[in-house]
Specification:
75% helix, mainly alpha, 0% strand, 621 residues
Length: 621
């Protein structure tokens, strides 16, 4: 009983304790909550970090996997798949240089213009990398983007411009611009920097084998002979040597090169045509046998068939080509390349009715402009025989020009056709347009030069020569032609004298350059110096009618009557230019005056100027 009775103080203590405990718990709960939230946050943060890290690991693995895959596909030659894989990598990482390299390489192997864009992106990402700039310039040159190529080369620091690679790319740019003298200088510099590089040796030799300098052409021939035994250059060297041997009429050497070329694993159908050029000179019977063997081989492929018909058209065999065409199944002639080649064959043999029939219909596709052009030719030529109007020709030709407009390759083909058929008005207009396109400018200017020389439109000729000189300022013969015409026309006389000296300094043994500089000196009253220059030239070259005019004038100025008369005889009655005819008349007048006026004894003429039989005329201007 007494145990059941609790002391009142005990109850109050318990209540106090319970109150304190409740209070403590109320204070502890927020702290626990904070801890719990912090723990959750930490867990979430760690999770996010782990997720991001694992994602980056996966992305890095994925990019590496894509890169390895693209590279492997490129090496295996699976270019489309390599491109697709590299593009996927580029979408994941837009600044991926490896992906850009794969895309550029794949595009270049497929000859796609996209290569220029990829090389441009690489060059922008690596603005100070010389190799990237040179690769961009090379790609731009490959697709005719000369301005871009020039900017890329200009972006190379001057300290890096003496490398062999820079000289090679600069040389190809010079060639594309028609600056052949600069091209040779650049290629020679590349060989000088890396004399053991066979590629650079090949580039220079393939160019110099056509040189008029015997020392250069002989050295080039020796280099190509050596490279004809080196795998990568064998076929290219044999082609160059065969062309050279045929041009020099060295049939024994040509036979050797032709046989080697025919057993080369890399032989192309174009190489068979080179061999045909040789066998046609060597033996007509053997040539006919080989031609008959080539025909069935060519007929298997439309492109080869068109090439052979074109070759026959250009080598006086268009009549044989037409007979062969008549025997071929119609299906073998139903392609764009053969449509054009057959039309050209009919035009060459002047079978206007067949040409009209051939060009009246057909699916000519991208060559539709040529269908209209050949139809125009047939119309004009047949009407010229009957004396009818040329309105149909003008309508057809205009339609052809419209289809070719703003497309340089088409305008070039049309301009060549107009020149071939002597449509002077149409060809002049087309060549003027073609000349605005840098890769085609040199050919266009040369054609305009021939056209204006033929028509004796000397003012226009002078303008063309100025543009040619701007295109190729280091080409001495062009510089000399510009200077001589300027002196004859009294155009920019002081500059013409400077150009005459520049040409002579560059090529003192080249007859046009030497004669032009001598003429310039004689006009300054330095006739003795002028005679000294021509005395150092081979006499046979001085008897070229164009050169003989100037030599006769110099001798007449010196009162050398007998030798002057003989040089006048070498030029008189020959096809010389009107400006030269005026100079020849001037020489005759001086001699007439000298013959009528008694004069002191004249010193003998140096033996170098003694007349010899005239050599083959060498075209100038």
């Amino acid at each position: 009983m007494a145990e059941q009775i609790k002391h009142p103080r005990h109850g109050r203590v318990r209540q106090l304790f319970l109150g304190l405990e409740s209070c403590f718990q109320r204070q502890l709960w927020p702290a626990r909550l904070v801890v719990m939230v912090a723990l959750v946050a930490v867990v979430l943060l760690v999770g996010v970090l782990l997720f991001n890290y694992s994602s980056k690991l996966y992305e890095n693995w994925r990019q590496t996997h894509l890169l390895h895959g693209a590279t492997a596909l490129l090496q295996e030659g699976k270019l489309n798949k390599a491109t697709q894989t590299a593009q996927e990598l580029l979408r994941r990482r837009p600044d991926s240089l490896p992906a850009l390299y794969v895309l550029a390489e794949a595009a270049e192997r497929q000859n796609l213009e996209e290569a220029v864009s990829w090389r441009g992106q690489i060059a922008r990402l690596l603005p100070k990398d010389v190799e990237s700039q040179l690769n961009l310039a090379s790609a731009a040159l490959r697709f005719g983007k000369l301005d871009l190529a020039r900017r890329a080369l200009d972006g190379v620091p001057s300290s890096d411009r003496d490398s062999a690679a820079f000289h090679v790319v600069a040389g190809w740019l010079a060639r594309t611009e028609g600056n052949f003298a600069e091209q040779e200088e650049q290629f020679a510099s590349a060989v000088k920097k890396e004399p053991k590089n066979d590629l650079y040796q090949f580039n220079l030799a393939a160019l110099q084998i056509h040189s008029g300098d015997p020392e250069k052409s002989t050295k080039a021939r020796d280099t190509l002979q050596r490279l004809s035994t080196v795998g990568p250059y064998r076929t290219g060297a044999l082609r160059a040597l065969l062309n050279d041997a045929v041009a020099r009429n060295d049939l024994t050497a040509a036979d050797n090169f032709a046989q080697q070329l025919q057993i080369s694993p890399e032989i192309t159908f174009g190489d068979y045509l080179l061999c045909l050029n040789f066998y046609r000179k060597l033996d007509q019977k053997k040539f006919r046998v080989i031609l008959d063997r080539v025909k069935p081989f060519a007929a298997r492929d439309p492109s080869d068939l068109a090439s052979l018909i074109d070759w026959m058209n250009q080598n006086g065999l268009a009549g044989d080509a037409v007979k062969w065409i008549d025997k071929l199944p119609e299906g073998q002639l139903s392609s764009m390349p053969t449509y054009v080649a057959v039309a050209d064959a009919y035009a060459t043999v002047k079978n206007w009715s067949r040409l009209k029939s051939w060009t009246r219909t057909g699916m000519w596709g991208d060559s539709e402009y040529l269908r209209l052009a050949y139809q125009a030719i047939a119309t004009r030529q047949s009407r010229s025989r009957s004396g009818g109007p040329n309105t149909d020709f003008e309508t057809l030709w205009y339609s052809a020009e419209q289809l070719a407009s703003e497309q340089p390759e088409r305008e070039l083909a049309l301009a060549r056709l107009a020149s071939r058929w002597q449509f002077e008005k149409e060809s002049e207009e087309l060549w003027q347009r073609v000349a605005e396109n840098p890769p085609m400018r040199r050919e266009a200017l040369e054609e305009l030069r021939r056209l204006y020389r033929k028509k004796n439109e000397t003012a226009k000729l002078y303008d063309v020569l100025q543009r040619l000189h701007e295109t190729s300022p280091n080409e001495a013969p062009i510089t000399a032609d510009l200077a001589r015409l300027g002196l004859n026309l009294d155009q920019n006389t002081e500059r013409s004298r400077q150009l005459a000296k520049e040409a002579y300094d560059r090529a003192p043994n080249e007859v046009n350059c030497a004669v032009t500089y001598a003429f310039s000196l004689s006009r300054l009253g330095r006739n003795a110096d002028a005679l000294a220059i021509v005395q150092n030239l081979p006499p046979d070259q001085l008897h070229d009618p164009h050169a003989a005019v100037y030599v006769a004038l110099l001798l007449a100025e010196a009162n050398e009557i007998e030798p002057a008369n003989e040089y006048i005889a070498a030029a008189d009655g020959q096809r010389i230019y009107p400006e030269e005819q005026k100079l020849l008349d001037e020489a005759k007048t001086k001699l007439a005056i000298a013959s009528a006026t008694p004069s002191p004894a004249i010193s003998p003429v140096p033996s170098q100027l003694s007349p010899t039989p005239a050599s083959t005329p060498k075209q100038s201007l």
